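lol forgot to send this yesterday, sorry. struct tokens for the thing we talked abt
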């Protein structure tokens, strides 16, 4: 393990520091928005601005990385992200915050892309799966730990914003001091969403609707927790437990899906998450709500990972990278609409609208999964893919997936002819 981690420790340290700042900022902005009297609809628009910027950055980042290199790109966007963080507290205006969230989203996806393409270059093919798992543990661990930093001070003062900016700036140090050679920037795989929808509609739908629901969680769950009766430290605890649920429960769910019909596993996971979401509407701040959110996180965070594994089952190996990028794109489109939709509903109906939003989003997906499992005979390619717990970051991390074809196949055009879902 030491020999595996040693060459990439600077990259892992960089992403840990980056996500400590990012995880803190995401919840902090929501709490500050509530304290400033912003409506949940307006907060939802602000949070959707981040996901919109994330999508824009997916197209803007690769040309810049190819032109100036990984380190310079990382330095530029880390500085931009830190500036955006500090401007939030210097200019407290919701419309300025929306613009800053777009800029911050562009910066963050580029920072992800730099680190992940560098990881790809440092790891041999037989070690990809182990490095992918370590990387996701660092991601989830940093995001969960960041929520506990909310107890340090009030969201109404500079301290937490300054701390978030410090963490993001600190991510520069291990990255810029690394002695590892900068890799070549791979080409972005061509993705045909319409063709992918014809061949693998269930994974595509699962990726999109899970993005819708989880973006609603990231953007509005702090509002929901606050209005349900939690104080700032309680909000952080609820967020941390939900993330930890996603980290812990993905493994048993995923291993079960590797040995059973993955479509039915997806159906049960989504259906249980929808039912649990409906049950959350009857709970207020307390241990039962915390336990419910832990279980909900385990189920909801698994959906995207199962959809990727199901997609791997149905495509030829040369098509997997392009297909995975298609799922990432669908997830991003769903995420862009999640907070604004959930925020609008919460403005009309109050905090209980958020778990109802989860229930409806995931309930629609459950009905579609049931329809596909009952009415459609799927063609599954061999060998089957393996479940890998994951978060949506950038398309470059998909090359670390154990089921992704080797680098020499990455430029193959997708034909999407192996199966249907």
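and heres what i got for the seq, position by position
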């Amino acid at each position: 393990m030491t020999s595996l981690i040693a060459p990439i420790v600077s990259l892992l340290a960089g992403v840990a520091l980056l996500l400590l700042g990012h995880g803190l900022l995401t919840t902090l902005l929501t709490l500050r928005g509530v304290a400033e009297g912003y409506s949940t609809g307006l907060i939802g628009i602000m949070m959707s601005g981040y996901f919109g910027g994330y999508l824009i950055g997916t197209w803007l980042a690769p040309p810049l990385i190819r032109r100036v290199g990984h380190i310079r790109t990382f330095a530029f966007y880390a500085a931009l992200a830190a500036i955006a963080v500090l401007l939030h507290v210097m200019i407290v205006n919701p419309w300025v915050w929306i613009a800053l969230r777009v800029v911050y989203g562009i910066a963050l996806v580029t920072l992800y892309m730099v680190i992940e393409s560098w990881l790809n270059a440092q790891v041999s093919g037989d070690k990809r799966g182990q490095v992918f798992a370590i990387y996701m543990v660092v991601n989830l661990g940093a995001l969960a730990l960041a929520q506990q930093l909310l107890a340090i001070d009030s969201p109404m003062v500079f301290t937490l914003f300054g701390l978030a900016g410090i963490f993001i700036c600190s991510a520069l140090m291990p990255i810029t001091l690394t002695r590892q050679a900068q890799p070549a920037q791979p080409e972005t795989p061509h993705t045909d969403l319409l063709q992918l929808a014809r061949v693998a509609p269930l994974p595509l739908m699962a990726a999109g609707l899970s993005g819708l629901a989880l973006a609603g969680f990231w953007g509005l769950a702090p509002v929901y927790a606050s209005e349900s009766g939690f104080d700032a430290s309680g909000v952080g605890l609820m967020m941390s437990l939900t993330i930890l649920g996603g980290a812990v429960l993905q493994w048993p769910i995923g291993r079960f899906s590797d040995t059973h019909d993955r479509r039915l596993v997806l159906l049960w996971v989504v259906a249980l998450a929808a039912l649990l979401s409906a049950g959350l509407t009857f709970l207020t701040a307390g241990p039962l709500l915390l336990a419910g959110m832990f279980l909900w996180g385990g189920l909801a965070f698994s959906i995207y990972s199962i959809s990727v594994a199901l997609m791997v089952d149905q495509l030829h190996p040369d098509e997997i990278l392009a297909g995975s990028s298609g799922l990432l794109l669908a997830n991003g489109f769903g995420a862009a609409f999640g907070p604004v939709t959930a925020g609008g509903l919460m403005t009309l109906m109050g905090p209980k609208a958020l778990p109802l939003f989860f229930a409806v989003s995931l309930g629609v997906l459950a009905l579609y999964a049931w329809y596909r499992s009952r009415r459609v005979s799927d063609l599954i390619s061999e060998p089957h893919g393996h479940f890998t717990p994951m978060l949506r970051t950038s398309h470059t991390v998909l090359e670390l997936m154990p089921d992704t074809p080797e680098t020499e196949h990455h430029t193959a055009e997708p034909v999407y002819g192996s199966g249907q879902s």
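DSSP finds 15 helices and no strands in the chain. anyway ping me if u want another try
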